[in-house]
Amino acid sequence: MKTITLNVSGMSCQHCVNSIEGALKQIGADGKxxxxxxxxxxxxxxxxxxxxxxxxxxEDQGYDVRK
Length: 67
Description:
Blueprint: E1 2-9, H1 14-26, E2 30-34, E3 39-44, H2 51-59, E4 64-66
Antiparallel strand pairs: 1-3, 1-4, 2-3
């Protein structure tokens, strides 16, 4: 398992947290949102998921991802 931290803009509330963490769970990743730091720690199996797939899952929820 690999853990990365992504900077995500546009998050402001618990709905944002639920939206992002839920989207990551759907693709097989474990995400932990930190609203105070505008970041998401993502734990995933790099043999099954790519960084691009993780970014896409977050961006599909309406947020911007910067690494």
